[in-house]
Design a protein that fits this description.
Elements lengths: L2 E5 L2 E3 L5 E8 L8 E6 L6 E6 L7 E2 L7 E6 L2 E6 L8 E7 L2 E2 L3 E5 L2
Parallel strand pairs: 2-11
Antiparallel strand pairs: 1-3, 3-8, 4-5, 4-9, 5-6, 7-8, 9-10, 9-11
């Protein structure tokens, strides 16, 4: 059974930091991209960051470049989020191949 599970969301003040984690299990994820997406209320789901396990530099949405850092250890991916802004408020989802996690809520508010 394939499982994709995110964790690490929460409430943080503007300028603060959070680290999200995602663990995928139950299938082969080696050699495949794993990605972080987010969906804010009333908006479409958008790609935030993608990372492979070949050591290539991760790709990022323009809105998070310089603030977010994706990393990966086999079937685990992380998203270090710094200098968070209210516009970063969203449910963050991990995608591994064609499987999605249920998401973790990130709220940036004073």
């Amino acid at each position: 059974q394939v499982k994709v599970v995110e964790s690490g969301g929460g409430l943080v003040r503007p300028g603060g930091s959070l680290t999200l984690s995602c663990i995928a299990s139950g299938y082969t994820f080696s050699g495949y991209v794993m990605s972080w997406y987010r969906q804010a209320p009333g908006k479409e789901r958008e790609l935030v960051a993608s990372i492979n396990d070949f050591g290539d530099t991760p790709s990022y949405a323009d809105s998070v470049k310089g603030r977010f850092t994706a990393s990966r250890d086999a079937n685990k991916v992380y998203l270090q989020m710094n200098n968070l802004k209210p516009d970063d408020t969203a449910v963050y989802y991990c995608k591994a191949r064609s499987w999605w996690g249920r998401g973790t809520q990130v709220t940036v508010s004073s």
